[in-house]
Amino acid sequence: MSHPVTVLVVEDERAIGNLLGAILDAQKYRVLFATNGAEALSMAASHTPDIILLDLGLPDMDGMDVLIQLRKWFDLPILVVSARQKEQEKVEALDAGANDYITKPFGNQELLARIRTSLRQYARMQNSRSQLDSEFSVGDLHLSYARRQLHIGDELVHLTPIEYRIVVLLARNAGMVLTHDHILKEIWGPFASDSQLLRVNMANIRRKIEPNPADPRYILTEVGVGYRMIDTER
Amino acid sequence: MKKQLVERIYTESPREAVTVLRNSLKVLAVVLVTAFLTELLAGLGLQKESLLMLYMLAVVIISVCTPSYTYGIVAAVFCSFAYDFFITDPRYGFSITLRFPIALITMLAVTLIISALVIQNKKQAHLALKREQRTQLLYQLNQELLAARNVEEIVEVTQKYIQQQMERSNVFYLKDPKEGGEPSLRLHHPQDRELFTDRECVRRVHQMFKVGAEQPEELLPKDRCIHYEAAISHGKVLGVIGLDCRELPLTPGSHTFLQIVSAQVALALALRYLSEEQNNLKISAEKEKMRSNLLRSISHDLRTPLTGILGASSAILEQKDMGEEMQEKLVRDIKENAQWLIRMVENILTVTRISKETATVHKTMEAAEEVISQAVSIVRKRFPDCLIHVSIPSELLMVPMDATLISQVLINLLENAIKNSEEGALVLLTLKKKGRTARFEVSDHGRGIPKHLLSNLFEIYSQAEDRGADSSKGLGIGLSICKTIIQAHGGEIQGYNREEGGARFIFTLPLQEEQEDHHES
Lengths: 234, 521
Hints:
The structure holds two protein chains of two kinds. Chain A is α/β, with parallel strands linked by helices.
């Protein structure tokens, strides 16, 4: 009894709207359109879509305000569409509650992958409210929460407690970008602000779990934004 | 009496005493020689009047040869007595008749007149010497002012001269203190600082800046503590000098000197400002030229793919009976052209992150390996079949940089390498720490760089003629943007052909010293 996934596209450019409509339609998603912030808010309230694609550049109001307004009551995934080179905007959007972002110009497959990841992540979050997953695995990486162990293939990896907590945090949010700030506050507490500390730890983690730390497979860097643990191998 | 004088002076200064002694001896010698001579001549039966002339001559000689009136007067008195004693009747005895006072008064008068003349003469010579020294000094100051490399040096030289010559603390303002001018102090006594940091001083300087050029400075209210002098050129006050006058008021001579100095300083400052202005004009003209070059070459580069997109899409829309294969080929072209356009625009956008005024970037500490991995993953998305091997040091390398810009440089270099190699050829990206720099290296096994491009690889136009239907079009801009970015970071970039074939591009970024070492924790 699967009902079609409803996607609300908030985008003022008609051409991009058309394109997104075509791509999402082909995936059998139900697509709704809003061309400005006010419309987006009312459509979200009346149709309760499963996911919102929100372009931050809107004609009537700041996309960030729309995001903040939505997040007051809407807890389904919101995917922000932003221009490249605006790391700060991305960080702000993520900190304001966006689940993920995608950079313009984007490929169709990339967009679909992001939508699927966000939906999957949301479903997982719903499940884990009742019971925590006991393990996580992607590629050769196996993480057992119960035994507090990380294996790459058959090999047990020794992590320091801090490193382990970072890996767990990323794994629990696999597929999503976590901002530097978010990770710092989760691991080191609300007053931590030295992102250098995080980078050093991350470099150490990479040297333990990645076959080539400069060409990571599992934990990807979003420069200027944060880190992302992959949730499926490409 | 003379002995007393000698003694008194001797206790004050040995050198003066020596001069006094020498002069006194001179007086004594001349008087004795004259007395002897006249005695001789009197024996030969010469007239008394003629002998008086001899005594007169002695007084003249002494007046010329000694530096002060005193010796002349003493000599005149001696000579009168000698004349009375030796020459007038009775010989070898004082007569004190009318002749004596006449001789004495005449001799004193002659002495005074001659001494006055001599002393005046000497004074003038001394003045001339002093003037000569001042001229020399001003000339020297002028030379130093002209040789000054910047405005600050001009100020320093001026203040040093004023302090040396006048032995007073002084202050120099280049700009009105109410418009952010900062005082430059040169203190003769350290305790003079308060005098110049006083509110009153600042107010006066401001006043000088405002009205100094229009009003003769006599009309300005005088300040008894500080004398202000404005350096004016073409009716504009370029600087104000303040001179401490609390202990000694300014003499007219010093005032003139100060005026001349300030005129010279004004000249030097005007010259400096003029050349700086010219320099700025030159730089902005250069920038303008670069910008228009960039614009021209970009619009040229954009037109080609846009024409392709327009043509291909209209062809598909208009020719309904086109074969499917043909249609796919055209759509593929559209996609390729669009991708190229996106890369181009991204490149151009990165340049806007570099500050226009200072040509610098906002740096933050970044893990070099993260930036590398991001660049590699972007390139991988664009060229799914490419083979990139990355190697980094075992130690984490934190480098101050604008990550987006450096990532763009790496993307450009990697794409360049991939496009100039056979499909599936290996591209190497290496990061090393070398001294105080991080060294990034991109090597390929491709065609290498054509020889005629090697010398100006990073110039915008260098590849213009080489750019045809070739897929490497637009790389000229890519490389020139790389250079702009690396230079803005204070680094260096170079490209050359490897001996074993293929090209290698290397760029370095400076590391901050305190960030050099990050060991595994």
